[in-house]
Amino acid sequence: MSLPARAPVRDDLLGVEPYGAPQLDVRVRLNINETPEPPPAVFMERLADRVRDLALHRYPDRRAWNLRAALGQRVGLPPERVWAANGSNEVLLQLFTAYGGPGRRLLLTRPGYSAHPLIARVAVTDSVHVDLDADLRLSAQAAADAVERLDPDVVCLASPNNPTGIPFALDVVRAVHDAGRALVVVDEAYVEFAADAAEGGDPVPAISAVNLLDELPRLVVCRTFSKAFRMAGVRLGYCYTHDWVVDDLRKVRLPYHLDAMTQAAGLVACELAAEVTDHIGRTVCERERVRGALTALDLHVWPSAANFLLFRPDIGGVFQGLLDRGVLIRDFTTAPGLDGCLRVSVGTPTENDAFLDALQEVLQ
Ligand SMILES: Cc1ncc(COP(=O)(O)O)c(C=O)c1O
Predict the structure, then answer these.
(1) Is 168 helix (H, G, I), strand (E, B) or coil?
(2) In this structure, what is the dihedral angle of CA atoms 240, 241, 245, 251, given to the nearest 10 degrees?
């Protein structure tokens, strides 16, 4: 009997393509919503000092207690109500693993963040969708109807949504929570770019679901250091929630999942939050400048509370035309509910000018 040369992959992974936006070596990269300015020197210097003193021969603090305490302090919550992991993607994976799983359902919006259903699949959780309206918004009534109809175990809303940039009203979060029994996860990867947060990097802007944590007992609010905190290369995300959720997440996390260097980087970022996030005002200004320029080109652009803009050119081929000119943005032209749409991240003024110049050429 000849033995097989390969072991069969799980049935639901057959034919699956690994997820990832292209990482191309081009002149201007505006496709994955990073902050274009690196962290300030004061952050890098303090981090280097801390890393020098780390006892790397020891395992890290398994509970990441000091980091969770510092994160909690930012919004007035104790460390027992804070959890951290390697990027908010890992926080989401842990949430879907703990509260989803075989036979359970996750409700997402369509359009929404494209990694949500992929993370759910890794956690062997089925995804179901509620479609946004033609203006890419969702009313509290439509949200509640979807929860009643589909009876999900977990609901996940990105707010501001990606790729639309539009936040969900707190009424929508409340309606989703109160219409069913699900754990409600609000993914606030971009919340620091909301208008009222821009000044001074307010950790609890008015649109944040953190404002609902005391009211809604099954609520989780996910955040990340990858966007406004300029640390996409570090891989650190976290959530604010209730202590019973943190207890459950501890059951599915890997031992010592959050390494000592990542914990140190997070702590330093909390200490220097004002300096690390001082670009937000500039980013928001640039976002509005680019939005104005796209509108002046007669393109449909949605208002954005994030560090990117969704727009719809009247003609095809714009994504490739920009790429031919060394400008990489994100192509959503064939995504459900986003017919013909493109998304551009806000870059430096020079990068944004390069994008706008190339776009003008392509549209001519
Ligand atoms: C809505 C949303 N959530 C989460 C993430 C992932 O963030 P992280 O780098 O913390 O895993 C992204 C990244 O683009 C995102 O757009």
Answers:
(1) coil
(2) 10
Q: In the prediction, which pLDDT does 199 show? A: 61
pTM flag (> 0.85): yes
Give the CATH number of domain 41-275; options: 3.40.640.10, 3.40.50.10140, 3.30.1330.10, 3.40.30.10: 3.40.640.10
Q: Where are the alpha helices (DSSP H) in the chain?
A: 41-52, 65-75, 87-99, 115-122, 140-150, 170-178, 195-198, 243-252, 260-271, 273-276, 280-296, 318-324, 349-363
Phi, psi of 186 (to 5 degrees): -105, 115
Does the Cβ of 87 fall within 6 Å of ligand 1? yes
Handedness of CA 193, 196, 197, 203 (dihedral sign): negative
Pocket test for ligand 1, best of 159, 187, 193 (most atoms within 8 A of CB): 187
Distance in angstroms (rounded) separating the CA atoms of residues 35 and 232: 8
**Tens-digit pLDDT profile for residues 15-27:** 888 888 778 899 9
Indicate the CATH number for domain 22-37+279-363.
3.90.1150.10
Which residue has the least CA distance to atom 15 on ligand 1? 189
Where do the domains of the chain lie?
22-37+279-363, 41-275
- 226 touches ligand 1 (CB under 6 Å): yes
Question: Which atom of ligand 1 lies closest to the CA of 89?
Answer: 11
Q: Which two tokens stand for residue 185?
A: 């996860």
- Per-residue pLDDT at 53: 96
On whether the CB atoms of residues 274 and 200 are closer than 8 A, the answer is: yes
Average pLDDT over residues 284-304: 97
Please tell me if the CB atom of residue 205 comes closer than 6 angstroms to any atom of ligand 1.
Answer: no
Beta pairing partners, 332: 341
Give the position, in ligand 1's atom list, of the atom nearest the Cα of 236.
Answer: 10
